[in-house]
């Protein structure tokens, strides 16, 4: 950070005539290559930075050092499960035997890849307590949509066309109502009790023959286990609806209990959260969905099946809801998940949930002297504070999050879920050592004390980062993505 290259754009390092490459003379016969039409040819050279190779290497290396990731520090981003992604997963999914595959190859030439698909489908089914999985969806939200389409297909194939509503709790992740809307279902909200779980009395009057199902997250976004789940499952099934489980964050349950055993009919899992794929930059992802026995035929095409002769094949089902992805989804993410599951093995997978839960409760109990804990009791993998206890200096959750950056920690999730005004959602994950957690706890307490002794310093944080407080809204609505725009140049089509 404190070097003279920092903050300079590659264009500012440009010197006319300087080059960083040399290409051999083109010996190809260019005679029969298509001519570029005259009107499409450049009149002037493109305005590119003119730099030598060393400058380029330093520029990008320094820029990469400004990244924050799980590999550089503690990343307690609630609901996102930023757990460590073991490097062996990367090595395996980068093997040339995998990277050089093509999805249009005949089944007989990709038996190994199909076996990986098949085994991951089977492993997830066992972990979830469901009958069958598809790995086709590309993300959690995509899995939700596919799961809801499965739900709709099930009702429609039975000729039950009235079921056009889906119940979603007020604490749900934003993708839940969004996926329901994209699926053409009407969203009906069910309220939470003061303890943060679904209010069964509020649910009962909503249940009738227009309900396709309910979407639930368990533990919910507050990190609280829905204890009424057997009752809720009974009520929803009695009215003819299905139970959908948002299993984006399966971490707390891994090896402890199974959504299928709780009465859920359909679920999705985020491989990129629970099964260890780097996902900080918005991808790549994979959101497999699983269904209970009786719903398998509605899963999307294509499917991977094992024949009686022990061969693996890509298959199509005539009752399927159709296709939701090109080919079989995100193979590289599936490979990482497979490597992760096999590395842990059956015995160690069982330790993920208990350790994630232990770490979250340790941090929660250690910090509730300084931060407002709106819901007491044991949490699962994550928990939510409602800002600082001492609100006399109006230091907000945003200020605390910004100040954490000065101390080298990633900020927790803030202002979600929207049940509390100053929500601060922390998920330490199972990987972190007690030393790291203790360091984080000490810094969080220090910030709470600074909020009283020197509130202005907290409110103006961060002080040590490459950039200070950004206008997130402006950055999202009017992003400046070219150098010409930054110089307030009118970008020309030559650039
Ligand atoms: C992350 C998350 C999702 C959405 O997953 P994407 O892969 O980002 O689409 C859905 N529900 C919950 C509870 C989540 O945490």
Features:
alpha/beta, three-stranded antiparallel beta sheet, 10% strand, Aspartate Aminotransferase, domain 1, globular, seven-stranded mixed beta sheet, 12 strands, binds pyridoxal-5'-phosphate, disordered C terminus, Aspartate Aminotransferase, domain 2, 35% helix, 16 helices, 3 domains, 495 residues
Percentage of residues assigned to helices: 25-40%
> Which CATH class of the largest domain?
Alpha Beta
What structural class results from the helix and strand content?
alpha/beta
Strand arrangement in the largest pleated sheet: 1-7-6-5-4-2-3
- Element string (H = helix, E = strand): HHHHEHEHEHEHEHEHEEEHEHEEHHHH
Bound molecules: pyridoxal-5'-phosphate
β-strand amount: 5-15%
Uncertain parts = 490-495
CATH fold-level assignment of the largest domain = Aspartate Aminotransferase, domain 2
Radius of gyration: 26 Å
Annotated CATH architecture of the largest domain = 3-Layer(aba) Sandwich
Largest sheet: 7 strands, mixed
Brief overview, please?
The protein is α/β, with parallel strands linked by helices. The protein has helices at 53-65, 87-93, 96-99, 111-128, 140-157, 175-182, 200-203, 229-238, 259-262, 271-274, 331-367, 397-406, 434-453, 455-459, 472-477, 483-486; strands at 132-134, 165-169, 186-190, 211-216, 242-247, 266-269, 289-291, 303-306, 312-315, 383-386, 413-414, 423-426. Helix 6 (175-182) links the parallel strand 2 (165-169) and strand 3.
């Amino acid at each position: 950070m404190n070097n003279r290259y920092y903050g300079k754009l590659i264009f500012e390092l440009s010197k006319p005539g300087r080059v960083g490459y040399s290409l051999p003379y083109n010996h190809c016969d260019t005679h029969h290559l298509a001519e570029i039409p005259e009107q499409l040819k450049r009149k002037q050279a493109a305005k590119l930075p003119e730099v030598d190779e060393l400058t380029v290497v330093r520029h990008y290396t320094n820029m990469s050092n400004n990244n924050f990731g799980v590999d550089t520090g503690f990343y307690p981003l609630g609901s996102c499960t930023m757990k460590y992604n073991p490097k062996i997963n990367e090595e395996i999914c980068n093997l040339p035997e995998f990277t050089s595959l093509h999805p249009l190859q005949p089944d007989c030439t990709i038996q190994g890849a199909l076996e990986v698909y098949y085994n991951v489908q089977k492993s997830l089914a066992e972990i979830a307590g469901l009958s069958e999985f598809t790995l086709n969806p590309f993300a959690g939200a995509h899995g939700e949509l596919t799961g809801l389409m499965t739900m709709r297909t099930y009702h429609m194939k039975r000729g039950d066309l009235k079921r056009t509503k889906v119940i979603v709790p007020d604490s749900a992740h934003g993708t839940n109502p969004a996926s329901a809307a994209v699926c053409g279902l009407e969203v009906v909200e069910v309220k939470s009790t003061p303890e943060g779980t679904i209010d069964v009395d509020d649910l009962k009057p909503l249940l009738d023959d227009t309900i396709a199902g309910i979407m639930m997250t368990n533990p919910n976004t507050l990190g609280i286990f829905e204890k009424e789940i057997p009752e809720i499952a009974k009520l929803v099934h009695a009215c003819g609806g299905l139970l959908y489980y948002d299993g984006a964050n399966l971490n707390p349950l891994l090896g402890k209990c199974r959504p299928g055993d709780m009465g859920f009919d359909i679920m999705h899992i985020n491989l990129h959260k629970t099964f260890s794929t780097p996902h900080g930059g918005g991808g790549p992802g994979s959101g497999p969905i699983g269904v209970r026995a009786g719903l398998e035929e509605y899963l999307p095409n294509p499917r991977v099946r094992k024949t009686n002769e022990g061969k693996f094949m890509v298959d199509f089902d005539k009752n399927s809801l159709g296709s939701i992805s090109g080919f079989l989804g995100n193979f590289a993410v599936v490979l990482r998940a497979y490597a992760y599951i096999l590395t842990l093995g059956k015995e160690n997978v069982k330790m993920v949930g208990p350790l994630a839960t232990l770490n979250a409760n340790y941090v929660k109990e250690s910090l509730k002297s300084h931060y407002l804990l709106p819901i007491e009791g044991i949490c699962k993998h994550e928990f939510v504070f409602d800002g600082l206890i001492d609100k006399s200096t109006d230091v907000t959750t945003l200020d605390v999050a910004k100040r954490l950056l000065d101390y080298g920690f990633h900020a927790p999730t803030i202002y979600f879920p929207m049940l509390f005004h100053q929500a601060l959602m922390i998920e330490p994950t199972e990987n972190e050592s007690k030393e790291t957690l203790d360091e984080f706890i000490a810094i969080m307490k220090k910030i709470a004390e600074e909020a009283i002794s020197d509130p202005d310093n907290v409110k103006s944080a961060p002080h040590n980062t490459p950039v200070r407080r950004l206008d997130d809204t402006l950055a999202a609505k009017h992003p400046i993505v070219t150098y010409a725009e930054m110089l307030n140049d009118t970008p020309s089509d030559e650039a």
